[in-house]
Design brief:
Helix content: 25-40%
Low-confidence stretches: none
Mean pLDDT: 88
Strand content: 25-35%
Radius of gyration: 29 Å
Oligomer: single chain
Distance between the termini: 78 Å
Length: 639
């Protein structure tokens, strides 16, 4: 049986989850469709998902239609979860982009379409809710052409009379967008030769699979209207026309989850080959893995299986497999996974309501961070505070909901702050000598600091030979530098520099590695004082679409939010700006834009990296260190 993996993406309230239920029902998989309002859907399982009517975590279900099995990977659709959206999209053979007939192309629709185009995912547009009053489908088509792509093909003729009917669009004009992009068919058309329906269908399928043509279908997911035609389109358009690849095994992990009883499950897409129970498979760059149990989605359920074939979504219990791990031959991957991995931009402290829950909180955060690469946590070695780093505020809300709902832990959090970084301004060096006051340590260390281009990270080099200073002392210096890099002159992590260990001296037998470990961060701080540091903050690149009448205000308001406009152009009735903006300002900028454009603006963003901050430096209080702070203070008095 052929297997197709599809995703359903939509703006909030366009009907994505309802469409999933309708597909399962129309295919005979379930006896009655679930309801978003009643919280009985099969894919939105978290209370927050049901409460808000949004999908947060990737879920998988399936149905069978004709001789094909269709797995539905229910991808998240909120801005904070784009990393999971990208990871989930990479396993798809195609996507259904759902539009509301009443609302047309909305802001989040454009964001999701942008992601689909970036990964070249074949896409069908489904215009949902056509049974609502006051529908103007021509205006919806025009909004698709203007805001998504002009390369669309309207597959159905819709009659919006008292009884809504859908019939196949047989007009000759419907194939214009197919013919005009194929030189051979265009030559036939111009010469007046006949073009067979088979030729047109083959070219349509090729274009859809190249992600250069968008077929448009219609219906009402809530009432089951147009669902069978949509399923026929999925089967007809998303099945690969390319020759079968190698029989070598290849699969990739795209999701990790923990069950309510704590079992760790990984989801992988099998791109080629066959996976069998008790197989021992190679992991790229790591030890082999024995398959002791596996499950697959089947007819709306998750069932055990002994064999999984090419195309399948396989669920394995595993404590060792990680997100993006590759099983088998990685050369068989059809497309690279999304490489622009976002980084956390906000952080805050989190504490349990009762001290007795601290260990349970740490265990829960370990599990949650394992499933979400954009969530990090650490325990401050000095203050013992639990610090969360994350991408966006909705992500924080989800973590809080998970802690309460799944782990039964009540927490208190402080207001999130932007994560800044520091970068040295110039080359500088400093040496502190043994037995020279106020140095209390039996060690001499000389360090140099050299700034590197933005985004380079930290590089380290020891120019002191192991023959002169043994490995335990060398390791201690590296440990001390690593600690010192955690707090620059403004209290933030230091990055984008090269640190060289230039000079070291010890006295035998009194010197110990602890002397070098303690002295190194003090030497580094003195070198940074000579160099000075530049504060960096996360920036976003943005593409802003706004109605043309707001051109002036959108342009002139940008500096208020520290945004820089790089290009501006007029497209039909819209103005399109591109530029960059500090991540801390984007929410306020978006809110202001939405307010004065009455929600008609769209701002697409991507992480650009860290750049020099605008305005006064933000000082973060240093974490106390009872052993070092007195020595630091004594050295700070030296001119």
């Amino acid at each position: 049986m052929n297997i197709i993996n599809i995703g359903i993406l939509a703006h909030v309230d366009a009907g994505k989850t309802t469409l999933t239920e309708s597909l399962l029902y129309a295919s005979g998989t379930i006896s009655e469709p679930g309801s978003v309002e009643k919280g009985t859907t099969r894919t939105d399982t978290m209370f927050l998902e049901r409460q808000r009517g949004i999908t947060i975590q990737t879920a998988v279900t399936s149905f069978q239609w004709h001789s094909c099995k269709v797995n539905i990977v229910d991808t998240p659709g909120h801005m904070d979860f784009l990393a999971e959206v990208y990871r989930s999209l990479a396993v798809l053979d195609g996507a259904i982009l759902v539009l509301s007939a009443k609302d047309g192309v909305q802001a989040q629709t454009r964001v999701l379409f942008h992601a689909l185009r970036k990964l070249n995912i074949p896409t069908i547009i489904f215009i949902n809710k056509i049974d609502q009053v006051g529908i103007d489908l021509e205006s919806v088509y025009q909004s698709v052409r203007d805001k998504l792509s002009a390369d669309i093909i309207i597959k159905q003729t819709v009659s919006l009379s008292s009884k809504i009917t859908l019939t196949e669009n047989t007009s000759a004009e419907v194939w214009d967008s197919v013919i005009e992009n194929n030189d051979e068919l265009l030559a036939k058309y111009i010469a007046g030769e006949s073009i067979s329906q088979k030729e047109l269908a083959q070219e349509e399928q090729r274009r859809v699979q190249d992600a250069s043509l968008l077929p448009v279908y219609h219906g009402s997911a809530k009432n089951g209207l147009g669902i069978q035609q949509l399923m026929d389109a999925v089967i007809g358009l998303f099945q690969s026309t390319k020759e079968q690849g190698s029989a070598a095994l290849c699969g990739r992990v795209f999701k990790v989850e923990y069950t309510d009883c704590g079992q760790r499950l990984v989801y992988l897409r099998l791109y080629s080959g066959t996976l069998r129970l008790r197989d021992t498979v190679a992991l790229a760059g790591r030890k082999k893995l024995k398959i002791t149990e596996m499950r697959i989605p089947s007819k709306g359920e998750i069932v055990r299986t002994d064999t999984a074939h090419k195309g399948e979504i396989v669920i394995l219990p595993s404590d060792s497999l990680r997100l993006n791990d590759i099983l088998g031959d990685k050369t068989q991957l059809p497309r690279e996974m999304w490489s622009d991995v976002p980084f956390p931009m906000l952080r805050m402290t989190i504490t349990p309501k009762t001290a007795e829950q601290r260990d349970r909180l740490l265990d829960a955060l370990t599990q949650i961070a394992d499933t979400d690469p954009l969530l990090h946590y650490e325990v401050d070695s000095t203050t013992h505070e639990i610090i969360l780093s994350f991408l966006g505020r909705m992500q924080l809300e989800v973590v809080s909901a998970l802690l309460t709902e799944k782990y039964k832990i009540e927490t208190a959090v402080k207001e999130p702050t932007v994560i800044y970084l520091e970068r040295p301004l110039k080359v500088a060096s400093h040496t502190i000598h043994i037995e020279v006051p106020p140095n209390p340590f039996w060690a001499s260390i000389g360090l140099s600091v050299t700034p590197l281009p933005l985004g380079s990270g930290v590089k380290y080099e020891s120019r002191v030979s192991l023959g002169y200073l043994n490995q335990s002392f060398q390791n201690a210096v590296m440990d001390g530098i690593r600690y010192g890099l955690g707090q620059g002159l403004c209290g933030w992590n230091v990055t984008d520099c090269k640190i060289c260990f230039e000079y070291g001296l010890y006295y035998s037998p009194v010197s110990t590695p602890a002397d070098f470990r303690s002295l190194a961060p003090i030497v580094l701080e003195q070198a940074l004082k000579k160099s000075g540091t530049q504060l960096l903050e996360p920036y976003l690149s943005f593409t802003l679409y706004a109605p043309q009448e707001y051109l002036s205000r959108a342009y002139h308001d940008a500096p208020k939010y520290c945004a820089t406009i790089e290009t501006a152009q007029i497209k039909k009735d819209e103005v399109v700006f591109t530029g960059e903006i500090p991540a801390r300002c984007i929410q306020a900028y978006r809110t202001d834009l939405a307010f004065y454009t009455n929600g008609r603006s769209v701002c697409l963003t991507e992480l650009k990296g860290y750049q020099a901050t605008v305005g006064e430096p933000i000082i973060q209080p240093r974490r106390p260190n009872s052993r070092l702070d007195k020595v630091r203070h004594m050295f700070s008095k030296i001119p």
